[in-house]
Amino acid sequence: MSEALWEEHLPFMKAAIEEAQKAEAIREVPIGAVVVLGSEIIGRGHNVRETTRDPLAHAELIAIKQASEHLEAWRLLNCRLYVTLEPCPMCAGAIVQARISQVVFGTPDPKAGCAGTLMNLLQEDRFNHRVEVIGGVMQQECGTMLTQFFRKLRGKE
Ligand SMILES: [Zn+2]
Description:
metal-binding, EC 3.5.4.33, binds zinc ion, tRNA_aden_deaminase, hydrolase, tRNA-specific adenosine-34 deaminase activity, single chain
């Protein structure tokens, strides 16, 4: 990808990182996401799995729900989703269901990543929708947030 194209993604990944910081502020695993249409952010979300005691409360699902409410549609056509961590199988499934065009993620997830690491649900030919995927945007910032969070957590134990 050219330098100019890569730079276009940075403000939106920064917005996803800001969401992740909101999660961290309430002692949740710092993962954040935004949904973008054109140059407008129409959905934001951060992980609140502990706070809500909800296994579905992933950043991506919250951002997708907000974007759907904004557009009053379940199809998020031409939308891009930015997320600090590679999507899990549940979120990758939701991304396909919402017909999102492009996913940009920060750091890969060796334990649950379904955008190419463990499997690639976003680009499965047998599904009726495929998503363009770009990984590694602000990877270091996104990854460091997570490793520092878990380091602090272990330090307390
Ligand atoms: Zn997820």
